[in-house]
Amino acid sequence: MGEFTEIFGPFYWKTHVIENQEILDRCLGKIKNYSEKKPLIIPTDWECNIHSSFKSNDPDMKLDTPWLYPIYTRYINLFLDEFLDKAGTAKVFDPWYNVFSYDQFQEPHAHFPHDFSLVHYVLFNENEHLPTTFINPNAIAAEAQRAFRPDLISKINKKDPKKSFYMTNYTPIGIGQGDLIIFPSSLSHYVKQNKSDIKRITFTLNFNVI
Asked: pLDDT per residue over 23-65, tens digit each?
């Protein structure tokens, strides 16, 4: 038996938010009501179809950041404990929400200049919705493999993240409501169209290590 060791590869870290139901009870009604009144709110320079509170000055769209901050900080600290070799803390920036109603999507983008980004799947039906899709930063190599070595690609398990070097993009499996992922902010990603009448709602924030 051999052992694979991944090198030069980005990653995502996953955990589950035990306070998810409390967050739903406190935040969901306001968000759903406002998104139904204004189903399309696209932040400046975004090229998508979405209702988002990103950098909004509308008080009706503000999340309860003082209440959410200690919740997310706890999970960020768990991540840092596992990721860092030396002690570090996080400077956390204000979270925002994204609502994806039927046929809505978000284009490929990254979260420069931050260190890490967090996505919390607050309202998410794993039978109807897709999680974040990540774009391979070695896309040229992956496309070349697909063009010149299709026989090799056909033999690879497309759901195995260890084989993601050979894929142009990767959508994690096993993401459910209440799950939270953290990934390098430089890793490009997007959200495919919501083909369900059930809203897909995520909370997102960025943080830097200090």
From this structure: 999 999 999 999 999 999 999 999 999 999 999 999 999 999 9
| Structural domains of the chain, with CATH | 13-132+173-209 (2.60.120.620), 136-170 (no CATH)
pTM over 0.85: yes
Half-sphere exposure of 39 (CA within 13 A, CB side): 11
**Sequential DSSP letters for 86-142:** S---EEEPPPEEEEE-TT-BEEEE--TT-SEEEEEEEE--TTT---PEEEPTTHHHH
The phi, psi pair for 97, rounded to 5°, reads -115, 150
Residues 6+ away with beta carbon under 8 Å from 125: 177, 196, 198, 200
CA gap 119, 45 in Å, rounded: 20
Cα–Cα distance between 34 and 201 in angstroms, integer?
13
Cβ atoms 127, 149 nearer than 8 A = no
